[in-house]
Design goal:
mainly alpha
């Protein structure tokens, strides 16, 4: 579209614009996992066309003990995942294919056939990169999958579950049957935005040709554009979407695109039209759109924005204000979804100082890596006074890496771990210091710091480096020793510490948080990883009051997905089982099924890191 091309050219070439395409969206996404972590084996060459041999037995998750019979009274106490609703929706939607065919007749065919992209499989990362097979959802109905995604309340509790789900959603994976391919991509994009993954959402939505867009994909384009603070992302579909939508969004989107293209008269007329509509935008929503219109090359004025009286931060308000470089009150972020903090961390037009807290939150959500946090603090340090930074987080991080005396490096780490308040900020400090912790030589001199060092390393997947502390941990006793022992028991690549059932049952006594919950998490993690003798599983389940035999729709679904070797579906269902941002609300029974199922489908490294995270964050 000429108007779209002009908008993008002007955005790239005019330095005075207050709206620009974020630099992050122009680069390929980088892995936030440490080199070599969980590296998938190379796919074998396709077999010759000969009769398939008999399949070996499927490795399913470890079954719950026979003595723990499921019962309705106990099963009803498990968290409701909404899985039965997803199944009903899949059955009820019998007209999906007919609707898709009708929508296809309305699409413009203005892209040459040779330039069109297939929708049989959509994604921007190859399966060889993500470790998610192209057929990872098996034969699962598309309507069932999209319903699960649409109803998934993200962000989820676990950083590692979220990172695994992002790999699934961004992989070039086969489109399932029974759903319009554009709607399939739309649900993936919308879920990514709710997870805080603005960059990934924007890259994914661009993999579908604009003329194939459905109303649901229009919603996804809007959310991805606002999450990445890029109003120009709406321009390729704004004109068509305006004719099919009854919301106030797309008339204003057309006005903004016209303004960014330098068509001030057209933009003004479109704003006037938007004001006259029955469902017209009002207040700050309209003012923010006018601010973007005025940021174009022929814009005559910048609308003044006042946040007084605004009680809610929507994606529209976040995206337009961030694109214009406007400061959004912290109180609105505090009352908003955590995902918006991750969007804020990636918004390049916002001042770096205002994004510091958001960067830490984004790391706990799995959106940013340990290296990202280090880079951000380093950039902050370069712009500050070098003589006044020693007691700042950046100065302490520099000492943790560069101090000549190793004891000084450990002291700097202690200071970084002590300052934060609250569980999430504390875990962010662990992520920040992961690689600095890995540089500390295992020694009994730092025995009291062993548990903190191990938690820090495992937060970033540095399991091999953590395993080097096995000798030190074996010699420890007391609460600190129990903590380090438990982290190595679940997080090390190989079991190198002795498993003591009494020590498991008493884990957490005298420590922080709920001792019983932490002992339950340790037990189900070791059981799911197969690191407890089967004869001890029943005894510990009864002793710790963990009904492993209880079943509901979700437990049966994730166990079946694991037994059928469907890793993508297993990862999605793992996220469904963690629909909370508070680890204390995660069911130990659900954690057992998640760890066991992920291990069964080949995600054993991720399962170990989830187990370590559960112990570190409760």
């Amino acid at each position: 579209m000429p108007r779209t091309k002009a908008a993008i050219d002007l955005l790239a070439g005019v330095a005075m614009l207050a709206v620009a395409i974020p630099a992050f969206g122009q680069q390929s996404p980088q892995s936030i996992l440490p080199p070599g972590f969980g590296t998938p084996a190379k796919a074998p060459p396709p077999p010759p066309a000969t009769p398939a041999p008999a399949q070996p037995p499927v490795v399913a998750p470890p079954p719950p003990p026979a003595s723990a019979e499921p019962g309705n009274a106990v099963a009803s106490s498990l968290p409701d995942t909404g899985l039965d609703e997803a199944a009903n929706a899949a059955i009820e939607d019998q007209a999906a294919n007919a609707a898709a065919e009708a929508a296809a007749e309305l699409r413009k065919q203005d892209i040459p056939e040779f330039a069109r992209r297939s929708t049989e499989h959509v994604g921007f990362l190859r399966p060889e990169v993500t470790g998610v097979p192209a057929d990872g959802f098996g034969n699962t109905a598309g309507r069932y999958l999209t319903t699960l995604m649409a109803r998934l309340d993200a962000p989820v509790a676990s950083r590692w579950v979220s990172m695994l789900l992002r790999r699934v959603l961004t992989t070039d994976i086969q489109t399932p049957g029974g759903v319009d391919p554009s709607d399939w991509v739309a649900e993936r994009v919308l879920l990514l935005t709710r997870m805080g993954e603005a960059d990934a959402a924007r890259l994914l939505v661009q993999r579908v040709d604009p003329d194939k867009a459905t109303p649901r994909l229009y919603d996804a384009i809007l959310e991805a554009g606002m999450a990445s603070a890029d109003p120009a992302a709406l321009c390729p579909v704004a004109d068509v979407a305006d004719t099919k939508s009854k919301t106030s969004t797309w008339p204003l989107a057309r006005a903004m695109c016209a303004g960014l293209s330098g068509e001030a008269g057209t933009a003004s007329a479109l704003v006037d039209r938007a004001r006259s509509l029955p469902h017209a935008a009002q207040g700050i929503d309209l003012l923010l759109a006018e601010r973007i219109v005025g940021a174009g090359p022929n814009g005559k004025r910048a609308t003044d924005i006042q946040w007084s009286g605004v009680n809610e931060l929507t994606s529209w308000r976040f995206g337009l204000a961030s694109a214009a470089g406007l400061a959004i009150p912290d109180t609105l972020f505090d009352n908003g979804n955590l995902a918006m903090q991750a969007w804020r961390a990636r918004a390049p037009m916002l001042p770096a100082q205002s994004r510091l807290g958001a960067e830490r939150i984004a790391a706990t959500l799995g959106v940013m890596s340990s290296a990202d946090l280090v880079d951000f603090l380093s950039a902050q340090a370069e712009s500050g006074d070098p003589y006044a930074m020693d007691q700042t987080p950046a100065g302490r991080l520099r000492s943790a890496y560069a101090a000549q005396d190793e004891s000084d490096r450990v002291a700097a780490l202690r200071a970084l771990w002590t300052d934060p308040e609250g569980e999430r900020d504390q875990y962010a400090s662990r992520i920040l210091t992961a690689r600095a912790s890995a540089r500390i030589t295992p020694s009994s001199d730092y025995a009291s710091d062993a548990s903190a060092l191990l938690a820090s390393m495992l937060s970033a997947g540095l399991d091999t480096q953590a395993a080097r502390w096995t000798g030190v941990v074996r010699s420890l006793s007391g609460t600190s020793g129990d903590e380090a022992w438990a982290l190595l028991a679940v997080g090390a690549p190989r079991l190198q510490v002795e498993i003591d059932t009494d020590r498991i049952a008493k884990f957490g006594d005298g420590g922080r948080g709920s001792a019983k919950l932490r002992a339950q998490f340790l037990f189900v993690s070791l059981a799911g990883l197969g690191r407890i003798a089967p004869r001890d599983v029943d005894k510990l389940a009864q002793r710790l009051d963990v009904p492993l035999g209880v079943q509901n729709e979700w437990t049966r679904a994730i166990d079946t997905a694991a037994a059928k070797r469907e890793p993508a579906l297993t990862a999605l269902l793992a996220a469904v089982g963690m629909q909370t941002t508070d680890w204390t609300q995660v069911s130990p029974v659900f954690l057992y099924h998640i760890i066991a199922s992920l291990r069964a489908v080949g995600y054993e490294p991720e399962a170990r890191m989830i187990a370590a995270e559960a112990l570190s964050r409760t």
